[in-house]
Design a protein that fits this description.
Layout: E1 13-20, H1 31-44, E2 65-73, E3 76-83, H2 89-108, E4 120-123, H3 127-143, H4 158-161, H5 173-176, H6 182-190, H7 196-200
Antiparallel strand pairs: 1-3, 1-4, 2-3
Length: 208
Amino acid sequence: MRRRDYKEFAPGVSYHIYNRGNGKMEIFRDDQDYLNFLKRLRLLLGKARGTLATIRITPFEPDEFSLLSYCLMPNHFHFQIEQNGEVPLSKLMLKICTSYSMYFNRKYEHVGHVFQDQFKAVPIESDNQSAALSAYIHQNPKVGGLVNTLTDWAYSSYPEYIGLRKGDLVDPEPILDQFASKDGYRLFVEERFADILERKSIEELLLD
């Protein structure tokens, strides 16, 4: 049986990575929190070198990792991300969680851990799994009762996938290439993936 928490990272492999607040507490309490987390992520991925003066964080080279999809929720987050080189994803996760924890503790005068233990991770082994996992990640805000329409949630990569927002934080092409169009992907996420059979196809990837 596959281990659900996989930490032996390798180049050329993409992973579902998940972490949540300590004791399931909310780690994003307002818009500023979401934006500050994304700013740190952008810096670490080498996408925003011009703003380093405001945050003390050393970025990785721009080609070290490829973020395929993501979603931030009030008490947890999901990444679908590929490790391109020899730098392990664990280093990226350590930096993003440490930097955000310092911000969070300072803002809210919080003492103690912000995130629950170590992050969880599992490798993705096929294109079908990759597409289904992205749909699962993008569905989180609706499944969690935060929105009625997925496009109403700003803190996921879904708007980039269906052409409602431009940006360079994520690389949706490896997944979108499996569909005839962006609208085909939208239908997959919002209609087909709701089928329980589609969800069961990636049960081993769902860490939450």
